[in-house]
Amino acid sequence: MIIDCHGHYTTAPKGLQTFRDAQIEGLNDRSRTKGSVAITDDEIRDSLEQAQLKFQRERGSDVTIFSPRASAMAHHVGDATTSLHWTEHCNDLIHRVCLLYPANFVGVCQLPQTPGNPLANCIQELERCVNELGFIGCNLNPDPSGGHWTAPPLTDRYWYPFYEKMVELDVPAMVHVSASCNANFHATGAHYINADTTAFMQFLQADLFKDFPTLRFIIPHGGGAVPYHWGRYRGLAQDMKRPPLGELIRGHVFFDTCVYHQAGIDLLCRIVPLDNILFGSEMVGAVRGIDPETGHHFDDTRRYLDKVPGLTDGDRHKLFEGNARKVYPRLNRLL
Amino acid sequence: MIIDCHGHYTTAPKGLQTFRDAQIEGLNDRSRTKGSVAITDDEIRDSLEQAQLKFQRERGSDVTIFSPRASAMAHHVGDATTSLHWTEHCNDLIHRVCLLYPANFVGVCQLPQTPGNPLANCIQELERCVNELGFIGCNLNPDPSGGHWTAPPLTDRYWYPFYEKMVELDVPAMVHVSASCNANFHATGAHYINADTTAFMQFLQADLFKDFPTLRFIIPHGGGAVPYHWGRYRGLAQDMKRPPLGELIRGHVFFDTCVYHQAGIDLLCRIVPLDNILFGSEMVGAVRGIDPETGHHFDDTRRYLDKVPGLTDGDRHKLFEGNARKVYPRLNRLL
């Protein structure tokens, strides 16, 4: 079985954006209510058949761990009520996808984060999504301000109540920022990758995993800059008297394979312990074109993995299925 | 000849920090003056003989393009006067190094940037350093706020007056941030690498090099995350109808080799056009230890380059000398 740990519903029917546009237009209405999203099951089927399901078939993956569009989370828009309403609708839509195609999609939730707010809302929504909707994880935004980086580091006690709930429910979080409202940061070309690198360094600096021995994070986009700079991180850890990287991340920090060329994937698999790598493609996502050098989609990451030299069948099983089942143990109840 | 394009005076005699401490203590004094830095020539010699010069000899490099300690620039401290006084002292100290060891060091200057301020001060200091002190380039901080990213992108017209002076003097800038005062970003483990990635994406998005056909930037630390994610950037450029990356960066954007393990350097040399790579080590810098896996310093980057498969003598000449002479044409007057 091939499990893609990183897919977003980037092709959602237009009813979702219609809702969001109206919500943003009404941000200052005192009488605003949660409202509703008008999308039919047929629209959902159409949106997936022409994209994610087609790509699953063409590329030979079986299941996608599926969450709302990351760039649209936009936690910096409006206030906590805005974020809650928007998040509930987005997660409910993912739930409908999973009900329509239970063999193809497993849900991961967006969280109703808001800059400067406590995480009580997020804890409630995580519980709802896991216990009521059957989701198996969440996307946690380390920078709900959208590129101004005003939240405390992920190792700060601000996040601890949320981590307690993650541990209790035995679900991991993918560390995933959203749109950037800082002109310095292109969303998918800078902000995403920077956040990945930033989160890793935060984990390296602190003793978070001593406080939470079963807490697990996926750092997407191949771990940002980290595998390329593995020597820098090994050296920094050593200079700072921290544990060796392999030991520090074991069972806690995992990278996906959303790296869109052969040399990058080769490096990832050469350097990072294979137990810490999960197959992912982020399709349909940041890069949608076909690479003229290969004739295949840039984000068809399975092709790169198939060409990595020296992987055994056991290694491939870990990358494509085994590691995902360990990181997301609730997968085993569903698959 | 082997030219190391990236060295900072991280081992400056303690008189420099004594000055800085006093300057910071007196930030609110109305009567503050520029003051002076008490360092003898012997102290300078000692500080270099035990570190940079020793490493040059041991590792077989000839010349280091040398600038003030990057993390100490701290443009967010104090105001424009603070930044100007501090910068002038730091650059004057580099000048003294270059006078004492003209065969070993060539100067690159810090700039008196201040968040939100115009760049007139920086233009003046660049002129002084190039025309009076014989420097060959500068370090430009894209985020003088120190991790809050409040400046406009490097492609914004805010920077254009400074670029005009760079073009007139025919000197490049290394894009280099300083210390982070944002708890999210470890300086050398996150902020530096993020800034490199961010700058590259900014250059990809805009037509800066149409406006300045001879403007040149070095992106340090191996280009941040960029070579590892080269496929992502090629794909983003294609989706955004931008020129191919190789064409976009040719003659304009260069990466150094401050990547501290073999696999990273192998990827850099496999993926990025060799015309766009300059040998650099950042010694003595971010990572000071010895890699137990190799028995050599993490930042002894020449060893990795020596082991890259498939490089010809012509390639090696480019990496170690030829490219540096093109990017820093004033080198040719000195060497």
Helix/strand-derived category of chain A reads: alpha/beta
Rg of Cα set of chain A: 19 Å
What is the 3D form of chain A?
A: globular
How are the strands ordered across the major sheet of chain A? Answer: 4-5-6-7-8
Distance between the termini of chain A: 10 Å
| Largest interface: chains, residues each | A-B, 58 and 58 residues
Largest sheet geometry of chain A: 5 strands, parallel
Helix content of chain A: 40-55%
Strand content of chain A: 5-15%
Can you walk through the features of this model?
2 copies of one chain form a homodimer. Chain A is α/β, with parallel strands linked by helices. The first copy, chain A, is built from 14 helices and 10 strands. Chain A has a 5-stranded parallel β-sheet with strand order 4-5-6-7-8. In chain A, strands 1-2-3 form a 3-stranded parallel β-sheet. In chain A, strands 9-10 form a two-stranded antiparallel sheet. In chain A, helix 1 packs antiparallel against helix 4. The longest helix of chain A is centred in the first third of the chain and has 21 residues, at 80-100. Chain A is globular and about 60 Å long. The mean pLDDT of chain A is 97. At the A-B interface, helix 7, helix 9 and helix 11 of A face helix 7, helix 9 and helix 11 of B.
